[in-house]
Amino acid sequence: MRQLAKLSLILIMLASAVSSWAQTAFTVDAPAITALGQPFRVEFTIDAEPDANSLEAPAFEGFDIIAGPSVSTGHSIQFINGKQTTSYSRTYTYVLMPNVAGKYTIGAASIKVEGKKYSTQPQAIEVIAEKSNAAERTTNSGRKNPESQIGKDDILLRLKISDTELYKGESLRASLVLYTRANIDNLEDLSLPSFDGFWSQELSFDNTPSREEYNGRIYETYKITELLLSPQQSGAITIPSATLTAIARVVVQDNRFDPFFGGGQIYRVPRTLKSDPVTIRVKEFPAGAPATFNGAVGRFKLSSVMPSPEIKSNSADQIEVTISGNGNLKFISAPTISLPESFEQYDTKIVDNIKVSAMDTSGSITYTYPFVARSAGEFTIEPLRFSYFDPTTGEYNTLATEPFTIKVLDDGTSANTTAVERYTNYGSTMRQLDRDIRFIHIGKMPQRSASLFMFTPIYWLIVVVIIAIFIVVYVLLNKRIRDNRNIVARRMKHADKVAIQRLRTAEHYMNDGNRHAFYEELLRALWGYISDKFNIPVSNLTKERIREELYRRNVSSALAEEFCEIISSSEEAQYSPSSEGEMSEAYTRAIDVMTKIEGAIKR
To answer: Which domains, and CATH codes, for the chain?
Structure first.
């Protein structure tokens, strides 16, 4: 027993050692692309404590080592559910300077942990000579205007499309990417384009920044969103521009000591970005589509599960057909199945297991066709056919199930009997139906005398009650309509008075120096005035709608624009610093413009 315990302990220790060895990794982190004359970092990280002085760095051919290796370590201990977990890492960092433009490979580095050697994978790096932008840099360096510190092409917004020419029903990936050579503090006011003519599905993506060469310059790129698109119509489809405001952080160094001490004034500079429209050319399917083609595009397989080869009449069974593969599974219609006439078919059940990835839609759809065989006999279920278009070959393919013979045994109530048998069993059949659904009466229906009820006291009482109810409902309904009209009319008539009350509240906040509450009440007065005046819910109001409503009531375009401009400036000022003079000016302008609008409407 004691020997068994020792053996178990040894096995556990060996398993732990093997587990720790399996988890040890030695990795390299370096940019895939860099600019000539621009230093960059290469980091080698081992997630275990290495043997002393065991690192063997590569030769770094094509690069000058300007710093390194600097060493940093990380060590942490965690207790999870009473169990201790220890992690350790050591990172060796080199700073390299490329000598000549071209494509290079940083060879494998190696290191030892407890005598065992670990190696990194070779890392490919492309060095490019960026387009000269010296004139712009020289011009900008002499300016103290923060706007001038950011070049025209230093921040870009691009909609990257994986394929610009494809068949209807195929998939493409659309990625909205920010390209920047400046430091970005924040992104605001993102407006995605409409993808009219496409089915779209948002994708999860890795938002880790990366480097990319574009138009001869190196940019840091940040993926903002990514979608899978599938065109639903043929022809040229243009995806309009996306817009975005990027807030760049700019340091303006005003005196000669700022560069030395790393000082200077920091500014946040907004830059409105707009991506270029992208046109996708969608090809129509070629001629010669089979009759069973219903728009399926991709590569698919067909499998089936047939019913029992022998069943009794009036019993239920089903046929299962599964379509699996890659393609536009979400848009595939259930294939048509042909069953014998004596089979009663019910609604098809559909169960899908579809996954949307960055490249395509894959998975399976199972169609279940339930039926009831009403008559005895031997029947053949014809093959079910499914056709799809393969865009890689440009051809149609048709898949089919095997024909299937099913034998239906008579359960004693089959419809497949002779006329004499049906006549003999008629009475018992009717009695059976009487317990389920009443049989249709064949003879003459007994006639009831209408005079038994007509013109009796109860009859007249019911007539009077019905008429009275109708009159009461009519009166109440009309009263409610009039009341609603009066409420709307009162709101429209007193819109200016309600707005003035709100403006007085805003004035009170202004006198107290409460900037946020002042602009909030001022905006409530402006939006509420239009809402009450024209009987439009505030939730349905936009600045464009306000302009339209004012134009319709003969208010000048200049006055309408001024009203909307006050709203816009108040919305901006609500969350930005503003002086008491600015609040007073906004208050005066609001009263003035509402007075002018009121006068224009009454004329």
So the answer is: 20-128 (2.60.40.740), 134-282 (no CATH), 300-409 (2.60.40.740), 492-602 (1.20.120)
